[in-house]
Design brief:
Blueprint lengths: L8 E3 L8 H7 L9 H18 L5 E6 L2 H12 L5 E6 L2 H12 L3 E6 L8 H11 L3 E5 L1 E2 L4 E2 L5 H7 L3 E5 L11 H4 L3 E3 L12 E6 L1 H8 L12 H8 L13 H17 L1 H20 L4 E2 L10 E5 L6 H12 L1 E5 L8 E5 L7 H11 L4
Parallel strand pairs: 1-13, 3-4, 3-5, 5-8, 8-9
Antiparallel strand pairs: 2-10, 6-7, 9-10, 11-12, 12-14, 13-14
Bound molecules: pyridoxal-5'-phosphate.
Pyridoxal-5'-phosphate (PLP) binds next to α3.
């Protein structure tokens, strides 16, 4: 039987490499999903997640499934047909929020911005004031373009308009500042395979009390079994005993708890600084070979750098050779940026100058 045994350096848009202790946690002996030992792991994971999201929200836990499951879980619970959602669209993932919300019967207002730029907060706020939506959604780290979205001043406008403020922090969480309570975010989701440094498979979410009140006023039950918030809370929440909803991904929970503990031990600020340093070093080193940043300074997402390619550079060929001959993965452009840029991820344990040096060492053969 053929298995992948080579260890690759994953410098694409995610997944990134997991640390040895996270890999060890994945191979720990299994326990059952109703075992009190597992509930201890769950409680510890919830409490660590609150630290990493920087929130006091009681309802903070990992949804089973990849990042998109976090998005779908929140939208299916908080949107009802006919509700209005305003969303910033400046890349793939804002587009995904928009199209999923349309499938759920929402009236979707897109605030479009060119790919590679942050959504203009003034224009976004204006759309909230005008449409008074149930949800205003932004992607905090747009992985398709490498943009980090500033959210200053949005929560206040949301409150005036009875709007829930929703963010996707899949690529920013634990790699750049994400401060749920300070920013006044009501609902947020992330994914494990980026700066949390865990394989893909869980989607941490956090929900404010204000959002819970809105959820309780739904006119009909959530039209999903797997993502039904109340049914999941009956298992995830210790209050009043726990009842089975679906079998929790035990090994992934072990891995997430281990990774979160590593993050808290490192310290959030130190971790953000490490991601910032690695990204700056990457831009400087590749800049010398003619790779130019796509995103202007001040809007750049440190965990994921997007770069225009040097003149005449055969990006697909070099990307293929890096993977095949050097076991290094880098990401291609998506949508209108396909064939025009590279997306290089320096996430979790890969956010280091060493990763950049390894990449440059291999790339020199082709430049
Ligand atoms: C910003 C953002 N949102 C959502 C997702 C969806 O996550 P997943 O592919 O894990 O389902 C991704 C994945 O790359 C992402 O980068």
């Amino acid at each position: 039987m053929q298995t992948a045994t080579t260890s690759k350096l994953l410098l694409g848009p995610g997944p990134c490499n997991a640390s040895p202790s996270v890999l060890e946690a994945l191979s720990r002996p299994l326990v059952g999903h109703m075992d009190p030992e597992f509930f201890d792991v769950m409680e510890s994971t919830k409490s660590l997640l609150r630290k990493v999201f920087q929130t006091e929200n009681k309802v903070t836990f990992p949804v089973s499934g990849t990042g998109s499951s976090g998005m779908e879980f929140l939208l299916v619970n908080f949107l009802e047909p006919g509700d209005t959602l305003v969303v910033g669209v400046n890349g793939v993932f804002g587009g995904r929020i928009a199209s999923l919300s349309e499938k759920l019967g929402a009236n979707v207002i897109r605030v479009e911005q060119e790919w590679g730029r942050a959504v203009d907060v003034e224009i976004f706020n204006q759309a909230i004031r005008e449409h008074r939506p149930k949800i205003a959604a932004l992607v905090n780290g747009e992985t398709s373009t490498g943009v980090y979205q500033n959210v200053d001043g949005i929560a206040a406008v949301c409150r005036e308009s009875d709007t829930l403020f929703f963010i996707d922090c899949v690529t920013s969480l634990a790699g750049m500042p994400v401060s749920i309570d300070e920013w006044g975010v009501d609902v947020a989701f992330s994914g494990t395979q980026k700066c949390l440094g865990v394989p893909p498979g869980l989607a941490p979410v956090t929900i404010s009390d204000r959002a819970l009140e809105v959820y309780r006023k739904r006119s009909r039950p959530t039209p999903s079994f797997y993502f039904d918030l109340d049914a999941i809370l009956a298992y995830v929440d210790g209050d009043g005993g726990r009842s089975y909803h679906h079998t929790a991904p035990i090994s992934m929970a072990f891995a997430l708890e281990t990774a979160l503990q590593e993050i808290v031990d490192e310290g959030l600020e130190a971790r953000w600084a490490r991601h910032a340093d690695a990204a700056a070093y990457l831009r400087e080193q590749l800049g010398a070979f003619g790779f130019a940043p796509v995103v202007p300074e001040g809007e750049r997402l440190n965990p994921l750098t997007t770069l225009h390619l040097p003149e005449g550079f055969d990006e697909a060929k070099v990307r293929g050779a890096l993977l095949k001959d050097h076991d290094i993965e880098v990401g291609a452009g998506l949508g209108p940026l396909a064939g025009k840029i590279w997306r290089i991820g320096l996430m979790a344990s890969n956010a280091s100058r060493d990763s950049v040096d390894t990449l440059i060492g291999a790339l020199k053969d082709y430049l």
